[in-house]
Amino acid sequence: MSSKVALVTGGSQGIGSAICRHLAQAGFKVLVASRSAQKIEAVADNLKAEGFEAEPLVLDVQAIDGFKETVQKICAEFGGLHVLVNNAGITADNLMLRIKPDAFDSVIQTNLRGAFFLSQAVLKPMMKQKWGRIINITSVVGLMGNAGQTNYAASKAGLVGMTKSLAREVGSRGITVNAVAPGYVDTEMTHDLSDEVKASFLTQVPLGRMGNPEDVAHAVSFLASEGAGYVTGQVLTVDGGLYM
User: Fold this and answer.
1) 48 among the known binding-site residues?
2) What are the binding positions for NADP(+) in this chain (predicted)?
3) What is 5-238's CATH topology?
């Protein structure tokens, strides 16, 4: 995989950072993307210090007008773009009666709209290569729902539909499109939950523990590999059995 390039959005922390590490360990040159220049530089520097190939890439997934130019620059500098992991995501939780338009729009724009148009931007180089992997990080919430997260669930359910539709469009071009749906994972997003809420969640998980970012990264690494060449249009849940 030494000649292949992977772009990971939301790569500055949590699941995204773990995905960057696993793809780098698999031999990809990893572009660590996020709005936070300082954080992605730290992730990339740590990987390079360990002998892996990684570069920071400042990218705002809401700024869709710059996607085409960004992809062109990546292909010119690194010789192609082979894997896209749409991991960037935010929450703005509240009961539906209390969700303001701005809270709805920001979640949809980051989690779904950004992933849609960045996927669109990478299709041309992937079709030219006749090889590509698009991996969308959705959520079990997008499959099963969750009170207080209607906007987030809508964005993640949208990713599932997008994944399956795009997989049908580009399969003949050697491009696979899949999704990974994490369950209750120990990340910055879950740190603010109370102990009571965490305990309540765990009663619904057959494996009886929280997941960790590496659990998700292993699944992404598989879907990015040659070994997953006959897997497309799938949603792989990594949730300890929460949704089954």
Assistant:
1) no
2) 87, 152-156
3) Rossmann fold (3.40.50)
